Amino acid sequence: MKPMTDSSRCSDLLLTVLVTVLAALFPLRAYSQQDVWSLPLYKETVTVNAVTYGSAFARDTYLSQSRYEGWAVGFEDDRWKGYNPDKLFNVGRTHSSILFSPMKNRLGGGSTLQLAGTVYHGWLWHAVENDRCDLLVGPACMMNLGVLYDRQNSNNPVNVEGFVAAGVCVDNTFRFRLFYYPMALQASFYMPLAGVGFAPDYDLPYWMVFRYNDYGKFIHFITPFNNVALSQQVALVVPVRGDRFRIGYTLDFNKNRLGGHSTRLLNGMFSIGYAMRFETKKWNR
How far is residue 215 from each of residues 161, 205, 207, measured CA to CA in Å? Predict the structure, then answer.
């Protein structure tokens, strides 16, 4: 058996102090696995409001051939609602967001502004349900609308595109312990499969559409073959003194060929939010 040295004593002392401080800041004994994150019961709602910050990329040949990149700020609202437990799809999952991004062409080709909003809702069925994992899958309805304003294109500077579609939603929550501290890791996925897309024809400015009432050229039937869109979110739920904080990353991607031109948008947003449960019950503390 080796004798303890001064360095090993210092290491043990620092470890003891660190554990004591963490135990004071984060009372571990107050939480069980289900207390960290549990799905809502009947007529109960769990909601997370979060501010977001990240990056954005856009290329829209309706406005120009340039590629634009920049930063983005926004707001996200995620909520889960408990439906009738006797129904097949007994949990509702809604994700809505709005973001604003000023972008520039790094090659010196001007700048553009993006304002975008999404509302996705899924009706979910429990594929896996136990103390550690909740895996839910089901159909979803999705609505997306975005505006691009090209500051260099004075002739036709604005393009508005979006879609309303039916798709699928997957929502997964995995509860675990890290150094005996309970946490929850969440991952969700939305993807449209069929619907209606809104985009102008390439050679048709907006003023001509309104002047001649030719609105039919805005509407297109969309599938994954001409409109690839997805929204993925990964988040970590951390309980701190009776509250639940949620730190996440959301990736929204949309690539389409509608109206004779192509659009590609990519937004990656970091978020931090506060989880609340209301209506019939509150968090167990």
Answer: 14, 12, 11
Which CA distances in Å does 108 have to 8, 69, 72, 143, 153? Answer: 58, 12, 20, 34, 14
* 184 C-beta neighbours (distance < 10 Å), count: 23
Tokens coding 285:
């503390």
Q: pLDDT (tens digit, 9 = 90+) per residue, 220-271?
A: 999 999 999 999 999 999 887 777 889 999 999 999 998 888 999 999 999 9
Domain map (residue ranges) of the chain: 6-278
108-120: burial string, b at 16+ Cβ within 10 Å, e else: eebebbbebbbbb
| Residues 141 and 107: beta-carbon distance below 8 Å | no
DSSP classification of residue 130: S
The topology (CATH level 3) of 6-278 is: Lipocalin (2.40.128)
pTM for the whole structure? 0.80
